Each structure stands twice: as structure tokens, then as C-alpha cells.
Amino acid sequence: MKEIIPAKKITGSINAPPSKAHTLRAIIIGSLAEGKTTIRKGLIAEDQEYAIKAMQQFGAKIILNREKNIIDIIGVDGKPIAPQENVFVGNSGLTIRFLVSIAGIAKGKEIILDGVERMRTGRPIQDLLDALKPLGVEAISINGNGCPPIKVKCNSFEGGKTNLAGDKSSQYFSSILVAAPYAKKNVEIETIGHLSSKPYIDVTIQSMKDFGVTASHENYKIFSVKSGQKYKGRDIIIEGDYSNSAYFFAAAAICGGKVTVKGLSGNSKQGDKFFIEALEKMGCKVNYSSDSVTLEGTKLKGLGEVDMNDYPDIVMPLAVVASFAEGNTKITNIAHLKFKESDRLTVTVEELKKLGADASCDDESLTVKGINGGTNLHGAIIESHNDHRIAMSFAIAGLKIPGVKIENERAVDKSFPDFFEQIEKIIKR
Fold it and tell me: Phi and psi at residue 116, in whole multiples of 5°?
């Protein structure tokens, strides 16, 4: 358990953490590529370590130099080999989803993919399995609940046309897209209904392009990849992460003061840039430069109603910030939060209530009624639910409220191992 010591003020500048999404995609695509890939300034956290181990099992040669923060990869040239043992991915949802499709192009008989208990009970991927079936990939949930462990028949990815519900996870689409160049035929995915988290698919398509493969879409309704394309190894520098930088900006918004986060690309495909726009609408002052963002906290006002279907990873810090505002914030169209590392919709409300916040949710929205700038809030023991974004979001609340303690604070290791050390760099006490 970690007690958070309140800050008098937030001040200074700090480098943005490396992008989690870009690093994971670079590891996986680089492992499929022909030749050598060198990843520089990437994020080295639990999810990346699981992805590295998994792709090594599939035949890629990967050397991680932690001191220099370099990952060198010799890829399998589109010919992954079925591992001899089960592949364990911890609680990395992206890794297991991508691997289901990759297993379909692997040489061998069958592969079993597995994860932690939360994966086995609370992170279903049946929609992905169903979408892969018309493409030839035979994959089943061994326990019959649509969750891992998943058994996949190798060398079964024929290609063709399929459809996929868009409201559960963009990672299902990304999984098929990443493996599709090595299918025997062209691949086409039709989106059923509304597509959630579109910016993450944009990141996938851009990452594929960076490695020499083209994927296209028609207004996110039809996705297409031509077979016969090949990823080419490359030297790549990972851009800064707007998702994890959100906590620095949230700290300035809540505590007052000014923070500059360096290394954020203005041309980034990351949708979580929206967090800065949201804070600006709540009253913060924002200044953009070519490669950094400066935010100054002021008196906060409620955001009103905001659709965050495309930005699920920043719902939690925004809900925390909203509890320090004056007025209401209703975050809508976020039903897919229930299937993340925790049931983030329910958990966020539970933990906000522990602090004395007026928070509630239904099946697809979360409402926070800000009261007098958070003067009604008080300390509490916060359970992270082994969810990195819950731990980080409520640690930020503790910079303003005395007496906040985070249970299982090392949940941050999943995406931001030095989170607490980095936050200290911008705190004045």
C-alpha cells in the first residue's frame, strides 16, 4: 500500500512516457517482418515484456537492452512457428488478441494462448473468434466462456470476407489486420454497428504502413488488406504517449500550477490527445508547441455531457478531475470499459465514492457531480483492482486530498513502471 503525499503545486517540465500502443505494435509487427527491426525509446513494461516473450516463442529473435532502451528484433519473415509450450500473456489484452490471428498463420498444429484469471473470466474475445472463422481460422475458447485459454489451429488463415461488431473492442479489428498480409487471400472486414476506439485502429494502420504494408478502410465500415504484402524491418523511434501523459496534466488541473510535457507529437494518431482538449474546456489554459504541450490549472468547471467512445483509456483520470470541478460531467458511450483490466465503469464509481464524490454509472455512462471544487472530498484507501489506470488516476487525486492510500500500487507496472518517480519530478511540496 502506498500513501500519496499531497502537493502544494505542480510545476516544471517532463518528458512524455513512450507510447504503450506504438511499442506493442512495433514489437509484434517487427517480429513478423523480414530482416532487422530496432525499436528506440520504447516503453518497457509488463505488457511489452509479455509480447517479447510471446514473439520469441513464435520464432523471432529479440534482444532487449534496458540500459539503452533499445529492442533489436530479427523477424520471422511472415513465417511464425507454433510454440512447443502454451503462450502466457499475463493480463495483456492486446497481446493475446493479436496472437490469436497470428497463430492462424503460424506453421505447426495448434497453439494454446492463456492469461491471468481476469483474462479467463472478464475479458471475452468470442467476437474475434467468430470473425476469424469465415477467414478459415479455427479458434475456440477452451472453457466455453469466450475467454482465454484459447486454442487455435495453425496454418488456417485462408482470408476472404468477414464481419465484426464494432462496439466491443477495436483490438479485434487490429488483430485481423496485422496478420492479414500473410493470409492466402485478400482480407475484408465489414463493421457491424458503431465502431469504438477508432483512433487505436488508426495507430494500427499507421504502424503497418511504417513497416511497409497498406491497409485501407471506407469510413471505418469496410477494412481491406491485400495478401502477399510483407512487413520490412526498420529502425523506429517510439513517440510520446498521450494516454500516460494525461496524469501529468490531470495533476496540474487539480492542484494548480503549470506543467510542460515534452515529446508529444502534434501529428500523432493517438486519440487520447482529447484529454487536453477536455481540460481546456473545463477551464485550464493550454499552449501547444511543435513537440510539447503546456497546461496551467485554474478553477475547474464541469464538462457537461461528453461522448468518449473513442477514448476509453482517459475516462478514469477525467472522472477524477471532474470530482474537483464545479458542476456536472457525464461521460457517455463507454460500455466497453466493463471489459478492460477491471470493470472500469463500476470500479471508477466505487472508488470515487470512497473519496466522498457524488458519482454514479449505468451500463454505458458515468456521471460525476462536482461540488465546490472538490472541497467535499476526503482521504480513503483506494483498491487498484490490479488495474494500472485506476491506480494512477486515484494517485493523482491524492496529490490534492490528504490521506489517500493506494492498495496494490504496483499495478502501474503494466504500463508505467516509474509512474510514482516521474510524478515526483513535477511536484512542489
Answer: -70, 175
Cell of 333: 458511450
Q: Is 204 helix (H, G, I), strand (E, B) or coil?
A: helix
| Sheet order of strands, 215-218 included | 160-165, 187-192, 222-225, 215-218
Provide the 3-class DSSP secondary structure of residue 215: strand
Burial label for 240, CB within 10 Å (0-12, 13-18, 19+), is buried
Whole-angstrom distance between the N-terminal and C-terminal Cα of the chain? 21
Q: Are 95 and 50 in contact (CB under 8 A)?
A: yes
With contact defined as beta carbons under 8 Å apart, do 33 and 231 qualify?
yes
| pLDDT for residue 267 | 87
Q: What is the pLDDT of residue 205?
A: 98
CA dihedral (403, 247, 22, 292) positive or negative: negative
Q: Report the helix count and the strand count for the chain, using DSSP H and E.
A: 13, 24
Residue ranges of the chain with per-residue pLDDT less than 70: none
- Residue 44 grid cell: 518497457
- Is the peptide bond preceding residue 149 cis, with omega within 30 degrees of 0? yes
- 213's CB contacts (< 8 A; 6+ apart) are 181, 225, 229, 230, 231
d(CA 30, CA 391): 31
Question: Which pLDDT score is estimated for 138?
Answer: 96
pLDDT score at 239: 97
CA 265 to mean position of chain CA atoms: 18
Instruction: Map out the domains of the chain with their CATH numbers.
Output: 2-17+240-428 (3.65.10.10), 20-223 (3.65.10.10)
Catalytic residues: 313
pTM surpassing 0.90?
yes
